[in-house]
Each structure stands twice: as structure tokens, then as C-alpha cells.
Write a structure and sequence with these properties.
The protein has 7 helices and 9 strands, in the order αββββααββαβαβαβα. By secondary structure, it is an alpha/beta fold. Bound molecules: hypoxanthine (HPA).
């Protein structure tokens, strides 16, 4: 049994359902945890060998139960590369959700806007990503039982899930943009020159997570949906970026993103 399987087995022994959908709650989305019925909480610190999230605003536990009758597992808090973990450790929690049975994983995050048509509070459906500025989580010996050595990445974010999300946004009158997300390592926010470079490279928003998780899940053949809340603008005369302001805007947008997720769960 691999270490990942041992971790999955530990979580499996605590929960009574086989999750169909995994959800990673980024900044501001903690409230979605209240929608889980018959919730079982599994702190990361209870799982032997598991990385523990230290980022502010990130709780550090799995939550498993049902939403609208659909068995789900949520990550309330993720692991970031800037905390000092390896990329393999960073993607461990999403890989475990996949091993537990999640065929689809919804990744959410807060990010900085690079597309000038965005503003703080814009919700963006991630259509593709750039990870060239962060190490790959697939570096190292490949576990062939998870996925192939040289995985295709031509369509990481599932098109039909994106269509379902857009249809839900339209039904609910929620503005939803499309865009490309670039992952940087952090923890420092980008300089204006870096932001201009990322925009020139084709990115619409920048953040410190998500793309590595999407890559690891796609490696495992899982379907991925990415939803990003633009919390601050990195392009133009946008002033300084603070973690507090990011959290404030993410909290404000959290209800809209939560409404989207609650609506699509039964349609996936
Ligand atoms: N940069 C990186 N990560 C972020 C940002 C940003 O501007 N905003 C929210 N997360």
C-alpha cells in the first residue's frame, strides 16, 4: 500500500459515504461547509503523514457528507507551496479525495486580476492555466497506478463542467467571466513588472495555488472545474495588495460562488 493509499484508507475509515465530488474551498468560501449535511470533520493533523495547512484563513480539515443528496468531500483549507512543502505534498489532499472516489473536483481560489475588463469581485471560470513558474507536482518517480508518466494537458478544465457552470450563472443572473490562471509560488505578491509580464503571456489572473492541484487530478484522469474570485487588480494603478483586502473581497463574493456550486452539484 502506498502512503497516499494509507492516507485515503484512514479517511475512508472515518466516513460512511463514497464521495462523488470533491470541493476545495479557497479563501472566502468557508461558508459552503455549512451546507454539508451529516458532516464528518477530519482534521488534516489526525491523518498520519498528512501535510497541515498553516495559511491564515485556511482551516485544515476534510469535511464529508452530502449536499442535496450528493456524497461530497470538501477540503476546508489547502496546502500551499509557499508554506515550505514539496509540490508532491501540496497535491496530496486532492489526490486523496480522488482515491476516495471523487470523479470530479471543483477547485476554488482567490486571485489577482490581470485582465483589465475584470474588477475586484469578478468571478472567473478557469479555462486553462500556466504553471511554468512553479515546480511540477509530477516531478519524481511516477506512480503508474495513478496516471501516466507523460500526461496530456491539452484540456485540463473539463468543457462540459464549464458549460454547466455558465448555464447556472446565467440562470441565477451571476456574472461569470472565462480566463487563464497563472500559478506563481508566492508568498510575495507580484511586482507591477511581473504582472505586466504575466498578462503579456496570456494570463487573466494570478494566484498561488490550484493549477498544481488541477494538474495532479488531470494526471489521475479526474474531471476538474476551476472557479476563481478576482479579489484585487494587479494591472493599472491599483495600489497595494493586502491579505486582509483579499479576504474581505473573497468573503463578499463567497455567497455567489457558493450559490453556483450548490446549484451545479446535482447536475454533474
Ligand atoms: N497575487 C497572487 N495571489 C493572489 C492575489 C494576487 O494578486 N490575489 C489573491 N491571491
Amino acid at each position: 500500500m502506498t502512503e497516499l493509499e494509507r492516507m485515503a484508507e484512514h479517511v475512508r475509515s472515518k466516513i460512511s459515504i463514497t464521495p462523488k465530488i470533491g470541493i476545495v474551498l479557497g479563501s472566502g468560501l468557508g461558508k459552503l461547509a455549512d451546507s454539508v449535511e451529516n458532516a464528518v470533520h477530519i482534521p488534516y493533523s489526525d491523518i498520519p503523514g498528512f501535510p497541515v495547512s498553516t495559511a491564515e484563513g485556511h482551516k485544515g480539515e476534510y469535511l464529508s457528507g452530502t449536499i442535496h443528496g450528493v456524497p461530497v468531500i470538501l477540503m476546508n483549507g489547502r496546502i500551499h507551496y509557499y508554506e515550505g512543502y514539496t509540490m508532491q505534498q501540496v497535491v496530496t489532499p486532492v489526490r486523496v479525495m480522488a482515491l476516495l472516489g471523487a470523479q470530479t473536483v471543483i477547485l476554488t481560489n482567490a486571485s489577482g486580476g490581470l485582465n483589465t475588463s475584470f474588477s475586484p469581485g469578478t468571478i472567473m471560470c478557469i479555462t486553462d492555466h500556466i504553471t511554468s513558474f512553479a515546480p511540477s507536482p509530477l516531478i519524481g518517480s511516477n506512480d503508474d497506478t495513478l496516471g501516466t508518466r507523460f500526461p496530456d494537458m491539452s484540456c485540463v478544465y473539463d468543457v462540459s463542467l464549464r458549460d454547466i457552470l455558465h448555464a447556472s450563472a446565467q440562470r441565477q443572473g451571476i456574472d461569470l467571466a472565462d480566463g487563464i490562471y497563472i500559478q506563481i509560488t508566492g508568498p510575495a505578491f507580484e511586482t507591477p513588472a511581473e504582472s505586466r509580464m504575466y498578462a503579456m503571456l496570456g494570463a487573466d489572473s494570478v494566484g498561488m495555488s490550484t493549477a498544481c492541484e488541477a494538474m495532479a487530478l488531470h494526471h489521475m484522469g479526474r474531471k476538474v472545474l476551476g472557479i476563481s474570485c478576482i479579489t484585487d487588480m494587479c494591472i493599472g494603478n491599483s495600489g497595494i495588495t493586502t491579505h486582509e483586502e483579499i479576504q474581505r473581497i473573497a468573503d463578499l463574493a463567497g455567497d455567489r460562488i457558493g450559490a453556483l456550486i450548490l446549484d451545479i452539484i446535482g447536475r454533474i
